[in-house]
Amino acid sequence: MVAAARLLPFEHVPCTAHSLQRTIAVSLHDSGFESVLAKCRKIVGHFKHSPSNAQELGEQQVALGQKQESLVQDIATRWNSTLEMVKRIQRNKSALTTTLAQQKSNIAMLTAQELDKLQKLEDLLEPCRYVTELLGGEQYVSCSVVLPALCHLVRVMEPSDDDPIYVVKFKTVFTKDLAKWKDSTNLPWLKIATALDPRFKDPKCLPKDERSEVWASVSNLVMGERSAQQPSAETTEKQPPKKRRMSVFLLGSSDTDTDEDDGEESIKQCVDRYKAEPKMDMEGCPLQWWSKREGAHAWLANIARRYLSTPATTVPCERLFSLSGHIIQKKRAALSPDNVNRLVCLSNWLNVKVD
User: Fold this and answer.
1) pLDDT in tens, 300-350
2) Distance CA 300, CA 291 (A)
3) How many CB atoms lie within 10 A of CB 206?
4) What is the crossing angle of helices 93-103 and 51-63, to 10°?
């Protein structure tokens, strides 16, 4: 399957969300947070595996005027579950302390130092959650958001002098692993997609020397698109060159050179005209923006659709697979493909929020 995929005439963009989750797992390993996370898992398991313990915790939450909610167990394959486990424990630390004391359990509550370490871990993982949800969105284009999102994470994960040793270690490993993934991904494709997104027309996430290279690549794509839309050679030969002889005598050169110069100038004007357009709001859809301005940017519009329609993650596909797995069960294995499609569409329509 891998060999067949390499032979396909398509550009490959790896799933950013999977890579980011792997980076988080690598950074958590031996970073100084493992011991406190292991203690959190014991506390969560104490209440998750016993309905009576969970009921006592719920009663204590109500007595303290808090929202009654269960704890969350982190799972390696479930994104952001570690962050959610930390948040739930932080919100219910008073109820947990009181309940464990009343039960006289062997499970010890987290100390003040460990709670402070959890707070620092929450601050580290919150930007990753935001980026994961941003890239996994289904209502907007996400491929062009990859480079700005990674640039944001690099800035957030820059170590400071006030950080403890375990935070510095986490940030260092995170930045190093993220850079390794970034070097192995399809950077040229992501750079062009970012430049053709009207929300990020000025790709500040790239160094200044690389921005000119990106726009040069865009100009080359426009040139290729322009050549593809020009009439064929046979049609061009049938049309007599009306002003060719006049141009030779007056300008001292053939009109072929003039046409090439005009073509290069028109391509430059095409790119400059797009760069002069005002930026679009972050809430807008880039594909709709290009659809409305296709008449003014005919060559660029086709290129933009090709690049911006590339998904950054496989999250929507995996959600669809999970939904189909819930529908096609052992007792419903005889469903026809048409009925499965109808049920999947119906489930999607029912979950759409009406404004």
Assistant:
1) 988 998 898 888 888 888 888 888 888 888 888 888 989 988 998 888 788
2) 11
3) 20
4) 130
Listed by start position, the domains of the chain span 10-140+174-184, 194-308, 315-351
Contacts of 224 (CB under 8 A, 6+ apart): none
**First and final C-alpha spacing in the chain:** 43
DSSP state of 231: P
Residue 334 tokens read as 């005889």
CB 151 within 8 A of CB 14: no
**Separation CA 28–CA 38 (nearest Å):** 12
Of the candidates 138, 176, 159, 69, the residue with the CA atom closest to the CA atom of residue 348: 138
Residue ranges of the chain with per-residue pLDDT less than 50: 232-236, 242-261
Sign of torsion, CA 130 133 135 138?
negative
- Give, for 346, the enclosing helix (H) or strand (E): helix 337-351
Cα distances (Å, whole numbers) of residue 128 to 131, 255, 281:
5, 57, 22
- Token pair in block for residue 165: 């040793």
Q: What length does the chain have?
A: 355
d(CA 291, CA 301): 7
The answer to whether residues 244 and 254 touch, using CB atoms and an 8 Å cutoff, is yes
d(CA 143, CA 308): 6
Find all residues with CB under 8 Å of 203, minimum gap 6, and list them.
147, 148, 191, 194, 195, 211, 214
The model's pTM is 0.77
- The number of beta carbons lying within 10 Å of the beta carbon of residue 98 is 17
3-state SS, residue 70? coil
